[in-house]
Design goal:
It is a single chain. This protein has 29 helices and 26 strands. The chain is an alpha/beta fold. The strands form 7 sheets. An 8-stranded parallel sheet has the order 16-15-14-5-2-1-18-17.
Length: about 800
């Protein structure tokens, strides 16, 4: 979850008084984990609480899922639409119906054969003194507070106090609005506790006497001395590596697990933790292994999930990349990139290619947005170097430069306990050294790399540096890639998705099959997704955009047709019109919101913190006059002709995700065509709608998963099926446990242009097979029974077959 950075907002209401941290509780009795056959994600919020979810249970059970996946359920900032801004781990969120409401939902779900999976947020809490009881106690009592160990506060930095960058302007400009009332310090809607004994001091003395320093929100970039979530100062990092903190922050969840209310856990942002493996091992121990647990881990390139993590797998962004990629035309994507460079003027020699764009964004973020984090790393490195005879006399600026250069060269999100040498490579060190003009000063790179690899000791200080470097690395990768570069490089927006690679939007069929074979062998119960609360575009929107890779000329023609609507700049025009094409229907408010977020995330003409009102007005006027108004997909005969191919892509992706290795998750409303853009657009309350053609496909696949669990479970295996004939490359097919066959059409527009299936055939496994999607047709398998794909796909571009067992 990545909230938008913004100035501090007033807190709307007080919370209950703090209590001492609970003592560590007993572990949950060990029991076998219940592996879901499929999950359904619901976004809880005050307008869609537990009671609303309970009313939806019959509908969701009827789809064929086995578990409901709930967004965070613990107490959060009042009014929060997502729940990741946790304020109190001791209680279930009252705005959702409290613990009674959650237990009632669990009982209703159980009565319909469903269990609950819950989103757990171990990395951060809301940095709201008014609502976060633990933080409030730290601000009141400082480092002597029993809660001080909860947060990564560097008390020795600055003047020895915790910086709170919450003021809308400099302190001198808001001083006259500060009030001491009822034993607390107030500013507008904000509220801060007072150090005992300071209530009666004159205001200036009172401010100086606190364990915190109120500061302008802009100071967070360079002066912050607590660990936060990415660059969001409103979310403060939690030290769950501390046993007491773990116990205090997990007691309620463990109680709900022990009582059978919760059967599965989605772990949010494990890369933010000091020791993800240690946390997961502790979690597995205290849950008794009875929870199906997946982690929101973004895998990069050939990176794999650490084999010794005690989890079922990831939340599924790696599967999303595979499915989207295998249905994307690689040659057309390359051609489209050329059209993009010509249209936008972002030529390769000016950094228009993906790798250069991503590297430049990483430098900007590490030196600007994460300046406070790199400063903290530098201070730690200076201390360690000063204490080691072989490392003395490295200038702080050189150590900081070395840290920055190594961070931007990390090929993955972060290193872990083992394998750091595979990501902090000699090649990375050589590239980092090149940033120095003097060779002797470049030795700082070797010093920092040695500290990170354990070459100069393993004291608590060394371990703390390694942990903070890893945490900063993950924040840098997420912020610079997903939240910046993805908006600066946009030939094919469907590839600019969490876990995706815009520089390589397509996945070869052979690569897809190899990856699925590995999943079936190593992570058979991992999660798979196509749409989530964090995807920038829903699967149906991405499907429409991806089809453009099959017809770059059509897209260029559409851009020519709408050129009469003037845009502030060509890159914005490309992004906005492609967004509108994917969305499919005119909607100035929703498309306008997504386009405005895009230009702020891009950070070139305006940003969240340095907004350019004139530019943003021009963006809004352009969007309202063009992409938000013009029905682009029906604007011309050529665009309208793409609709069958968009449906073929979308249905193919849905069926592959529902039947490939892993546990598929449906995001709310995606049992039918679902068009949504980046948050908050995709987090609207769940609202069941009428069934459509997609619903029948989803029901059929989910029913088959429940009826034949052996075909999809740990022993189900995976076998590629390869078609033969002139159009063989357009068929993606595989068998699960020789019981189920999935076959979908790839690149249907290219297929039609090449003359269709013609004599292309697919050999099914031995036996008789029934078409699950129509319930009528039967086919015979075996080497002597070649199946014409023109017959298999006569009525629809996808097929799901089940072995007849009578």
């Amino acid at each position: 979850m990545t909230p938008n950075p913004a100035p501090h907002r007033p807190d709307p209401a007080p919370s209950r008084p703090a209590a001492a941290p609970p003592a560590p509780g007993p572990a949950v009795p060990r029991a076998p984990a219940v592996v879901p056959t499929a999950t359904y994600r619901l976004q809880l919020q005050p307008s869609f609480p537990f009671a609303a979810a309970e009313r939806a249970v019959p509908h969701l059970a009827g789809l064929g899922v086995s578990h409901l996946h709930l967004s965070p359920v613990l107490e959060a900032v009042p009014g929060s639409l997502h729940g990741y801004d946790v304020t109190d781990h001791r209680s279930v969120r009252a705005e959702l119906g409290g613990e009674a409401g959650l237990r009632s939902l669990a009982a209703a779900a159980r009565a319909h054969g469903l269990g609950l999976v819950v989103d757990l947020v171990p990395n951060h809490m809301a940095a709201s003194p008014r609502h976060n009881h633990a933080l409030r106690e730290v601000l009141r009592h400082g480092p002597d507070s029993p809660y001080a160990r909860w947060f990564d506060v560097e008390w020795t930095a600055g003047d020895g106090r915790m910086l709170l960058p919450v003021l809308p302007a400099r302190l001198s400009e808001v001083r006259d609005r500060l009030r001491v009332e009822d034993g607390v310090l107030r500013l507008d809607g904000q509220e801060f506790p007072l150090r005992p004994g300071t209530e009666g001091l004159p205001l200036d003395e009172l401010l100086d006497a606190q364990w915190y320093r109120l500061g302008w929100w802009r100071l967070a970039r360079t002066e912050l001395n607590y660990r936060r979530f990415f660059t969001v100062s409103d979310l403060i990092g939690v030290r769950v590596e501390d046993p007491e903190v773990f116990a205090g922050s997990h007691a309620k969840v463990l109680e709900l697990v022990a009582d059978g209310v919760i059967e599965g856990l989605r772990i949010d942002h494990p890369d933010g933790l000091a020791d993800p493996q240690g946390y997961l091992e502790r979690l597995a121990e205290v849950t008794g292994g009875r929870c199906w647990t997946v982690v929101e881990k973004i895998l990069t390139g050939a990176e794999t999930l650490p084999a010794d993590w005690p989890v079922a797998g990831t939340t599924g962004y790696d599967a999303l990349r595979l499915v989207d990629g295998v249905l994307t035309d690689p040659d057309g994507a390359d051609e489209l990139a050329g059209v993009y460079r010509e249209f936008t003027g972002r030529a390769a020699d000016r950094g228009g290619e993906w790798e250069a764009t991503a590297r430049r964004a990483a430098y900007e973020v590490v030196r600007h947005d994460l300046a406070a984090e790199t400063a903290a790393l530098t201070r730690a490195a200076v201390r360690l170097c000063a204490a080691h005879p072989a490392l003395r006399d490295h200038a702080p600026w050189a150590l900081r430069t070395a840290i920055e250069e190594l961070l931007v060269r990390m090929p993955v999100y972060r290193p872990y306990r083992t394998g750091a040498e595979r990501v902090l490579t000699p090649e990375a060190a050589r590239g980092a050294r090149a940033a120095f003009a003097v060779e002797e000063e470049a030795a700082a790179v070797d010093a920092v790399r040695g500290l990170l690899l354990g070459a100069f000791g393993d004291s608590p200080g060394h371990r703390a540096l390694r942990a903070r470097f890893a945490q900063t690395s993950s924040a840098l990768r997420a912020k610079s890639t997903e939240d910046t570069a993805f908006y600066r490089y946009a030939p094919l927006l469907s590839a600019n998705e969490v876990g995706g690679d815009p520089g390589r939007p397509a996945v070869d069929v052979t690569e897809f099959h190899a990856a699925c074979t590995r999943l079936a062998r190593d992570w058979p119960a991992t999660g798979t997704v196509l749409t989530t609360h964090d995807t920038k575009r829903s699967a149906d929107v991405r499907a429409a955009i991806a089809v453009l890779a099959q017809c770059p000329g059509v897209w260029a023609g559409l851009l020519s047709e709408v050129a009469a609507v003037p845009a502030p700049d060509p890159h914005l025009a490309w992004t906005a019109w492609q967004t509108a094409f994917g969305f499919g229907t005119p909607d100035p408010e929703r498309i306008g919101g997504a386009v405005l977020k895009a230009v702020r995330e891009e950070g070139l003409r305006t940003s969240w913190t340095e907004q350019d009102p004139a530019y943003e007005r021009a963006v809004a006027e352009f969007t309202a006059a063009g992409p938000g108004r013009v029905p682009l997909r029906s604007a011309s005969e050529a665009a309208f002709a793409l609709e069958p191919h968009i449906r073929a892509h979308a249905d193919g992706a849905a069926l592959v995700q529902l039947t490939m290795p892993g546990v598929p998750e449906l995001y709310q409303n995606t049992e039918r065509e679902y068009r949504a853009l980046v948050d908050p657009d995709n987090r609207a309350p769940f609202a069941p709608g009428p069934d459509d053609g997609r619903t029948a496909l989803v029901r059929a696949a989910l029913r088959l998963r429940r009826e034949r669990p052996a075909a999809f479970g740990p022993g189900g295996g995976y076998r590629p099926l390869v078609a033969e004939g002139p159009a063989a490359a357009h068929c993606l097919a595989f068998a699960r446990a020789e019981e189920v066959v999935t076959a979908v059409t790839r690149l249907s527009l290219r297929l039609a242009e090449a003359g269709g299936w013609r004599d292309t055939e697919l050999v099914l496994p031995e036996g008789r097979w029934a078409d699950v999607l129509d319930g009528v047709r039967e086919f015979t398998g075996g080497p002597e029974s070649e199946l014409k794909l023109a017959e298999l796909f006569a009525d629809r571009p996808v097929a799901l077959l089940a072995r007849i067992t009578d």
